[in-house]
Amino acid sequence: IGEWTLPGACFPLEMARDMDVGSNSLLTYQLTSSPFFSLLMKEKPGGKKQPELVLERSLDREKQSSFELVLTAVDGGDPARSGTVQVLINVTDANDNPPVFSKGVYEARVGENLPAGSLVLQVRATDADAGSNGRVSYSFGNVPDGVRLLFTVDSETGEVRTVSPLDFEEENKYIFGLEATDGGGLTEHCEVQIVIMDENDNAPEITILFLSSPIPEDAPVGTVVAVLKVRDRDSGENGQVSCELSGEAPRSIAASPGGSYKVLVLAKALDREEAAFHELVLRASDGGDPARTGTARIRVTVVDANDNAPVFSQAEYTVRVPEDVPVGYTVVPVMATDADEGLNGQVKY
C-alpha cells in the first residue's frame, strides 16, 4: 500500500473455504486490532461475504514501513472451528520528505594559495524516503560565476574543493548556496561561508611618486628629494612594513619615519665637488615569518653651484727680471683653478 493512499481505501482479502455445508460452513472474519486498519465484509453474489481491509488512517512509511496482521475465519459450527492467515502489509514510499542538511550554515577557514583540488569542507544531507526518493545529489545554487571558477562540489559526496588557488588580496570571504536534491525532485538549500586566511605571499612594493634629480648643490637642508609610496598587499603583521635607507657615507638624505608614504629630504648641505651623485637604496621589509622584502634604487645627481672661488696655484709669485727684457717678454706664467664645473669653473684673469 502506498503511503499516499487516502483513508477509506479498501483492499480485498482472500476468502476462506470450509468443506462443511449448512451452518457449519457459514464463515465470519476477525482481524487483529490495529488503529490503521479495520475489516469490512462485502456481500458477494450467492450470499458469501468478501473480507476487505479498510485503511483508517494516513500511513507514513518513515514512521512504520510494514504491518503484520492476522485474519481469522470462524465457521458457524458448534463447537466452532477457525483458520488463520497472516496478512503482511508493506508500505511503499512516496517522495514526501525533502533532503535535510545537517547544518543550515557550513563554515570553513582556509589559507590562501591552496593547491587546486584541496578539500575545503563537506556538506551532508539526509532524506527519510527510500530508494531513489532518498538518494541525494549536491549542486551549486544560484551563485556568481566567480565562485564556480574557484570551487567545485561533488554531486555524490558533497565535498567542496578548490578549482584554482585562492587569493586573500582579491577576496577574503565567499558566501554561496548549495542545493541537495532527491530523486523525486525535492530540494533543500544550505549556506556555505568560506573565510580565506592571509599568507605572506606578497613582498612590499615601493613606488616612486616624485623625484627631484638633478638637485642644486646649494639646495637648503630639508629640501624634498623624493616621495615614495610603500605598500604590502598582505594584512596584519604580514602587511606591516618597516623601511631602511642605505647609501654611500656620509649620507646626505634621510627618510621620514612611519606611514606608507616616505619622504626623502636633505639631511645636510650637498657638495658637488665632494659627491657628484648619490646612490640610495630604500629597503622595505614586512613582518611575516619569513619576512619578504622589496627595494627601490634611487640615483640623485647634484648640479653645480658657483660656490667655489678660483684658487691660484701659488699665493705669491716672485720673479727676477732683467731690466732690458723686450716688450712682450713672458715674465711669469700664473695658474688658477676653480672646483666648479662649466662656466662656473672657467677662469678669466
TrEMBL record:
GO MF annotation terms: calcium ion binding
* Family matches, as InterPro entries: Cadherin-like_dom, Cadherin-like_sf, Cadherin_CS, Protocadherin/Cadherin-CA
Domain Cadherin intervals: 16-101, 102-206, 215-312, 313-349
Q: Keywords on this record? A: Calcium, Cell adhesion, Cell membrane, Glycoprotein, Membrane, Repeat, Signal, Transmembrane, Transmembrane helix
Question: Gene3D superfamilies, per this entry?
Answer: Cadherins
Q: Where is it chiefly localized? A: membrane
Q: Name one GO cellular component term.
A: plasma membrane
Q: Which SMART domains match?
A: CA (SM00112)
Topology in the lipid bilayer is annotated as: Single-pass type I membrane protein
Q: Which GO terms describe its biological process?
A: homophilic cell adhesion via plasma membrane adhesion molecules
Q: Where in the cell is it found?
A: Cell membrane
One protein family per Pfam: Cadherin
Please state what the protein is called.
Answer: PCDGE protein
Organism of this sequence: Catharus fuscescens
- Origin organism lineage: Eukaryota, Metazoa, Chordata, Craniata, Vertebrata
